[in-house]
Amino acid sequence: MTTRGETLHAPAGPRPGDHAPAGSRPGDHAPAGSHPVDHAPAGSLPGHHEHPPARLPLVVYVLALGTFLMGTTEFVVAGLLPEIAGDVRISVARAGLLITVFAVGMIVGAPLMALLTLRLPRRLTLILALGVFAAGHVVVGLGSGFGVLLAARFLTALATGAFWAVANVVAAHAVGPAASSRALGVVGAGAMLANVVGVPLGAFAGQLMGWRGPFWALAALGAAATVLIARHVPRDTEGHGAVSVRSELSALRSGRLWLALAACATTTGGVLSTYTYVSPLLTGRAQLAAALVPLVLVGFGAGALAGFLVGGRLGDRRPHATTIAAAAMTTVLLLSICLLSAHAAPTIALIALLGLFGLGANPVLISLGVRFAGQAPTLGSALTVSAFNLGTAVGSWAAGLALDSPLGATGPAAVGTAIAALTLIPTIAIAVVQRRRSGKPGGAVVRRSAPGNA
After folding, report:
1. 339 partner at 20 to 30 Å CA-CA among 219, 231, 325, 348?
2. Using an 8 Å Cβ cutoff, are 204 and 79 in contact?
3. What is the pTM of this model?
4. How deeply is 392 buried, as exposed, middle or buried, from its count of CB atoms within 10 A (0-12, 13-18, 19+)?
């Protein structure tokens, strides 16, 4: 069943020939009471019959720079925990709360900030988010008490959630539905690049300059990125006063949106529950030297970066095949890690492939979340951010319990296998629903007579 305000067409950008102003919200220019016609073939999303642009606009790469900064600040703390703990005079375990509070801030903050900034132009929201991001890092650089650091990290997470949610919508809008997954793949690849470049550089800089040095650098880069966003993101031309929280929340009645969010949570939870405890697996089970572990992590990050870019391209053509195949391959890879973890060489290769396949469907899932949210694309994007972080938090917690169980070092990978396998349920369900909505294999025209009709 469909709900009021939900359409078959993607909300991410006008079609060729439309004259909607840049930054306009979906549906602003549709005549009242009109109902879209779906000509999409079975297994594809509406709008995918358009020709994708040969090149993505510059604004997509500017937004990717922003997510690079966001991804760096989220994970750089992990490499600085001993230094932070020693300076603030707390235990390393307590210093780890700086990571936990950031995850909580992302889970809560992304949808909350999407609603609070609902009537603000998206360009202004991005600028404000980066400004708060920079200010939060200044507070960390100056702060001495642990409570101040926690508060600053939570504030930074709120800004990160707001930026990420709006950046996804702006990127998808800039290219249109024919290339939205590809654009979101580039935006998300910024965060993956952070794991390959930003986090190692931040840890290295922390050793040379003290742990506060990377935070000052991120504050300066955040301020510079604000200038780029102000220059390259198109200015919204219409007001947002007519948009209401109630109309945005109506997107929550979409069953397909909840299926996409479930897939977001399980795919990330399965991969990162294993990745969080990959070090004891490599050193304890595979007998790999501790000095080589960072190189394995770089291999995972490089695989994840490639996965985001390739998955985004494939997702524009075959979104459902991409998400189902990625879930199946991830399950097989995690099971293989469980079985072969006593052997170093295959384990290293499997971890790199896990980055490639395990996170490759994420840009497609974000695109689905934005589309299935109908007239509330920013809220849909924000909820995918929350779902990814919720899956990471729950998966890591369960993996920690498994690590202390008789399964030992292979416990997290076993938990990850079970969680990743669950991803097949929502991804297959979405494909089935889309095929039914298309009428029949090959793509029949589906015309709606009134909201609420299937």
Report:
1. 325
2. no
3. 0.70
4. buried
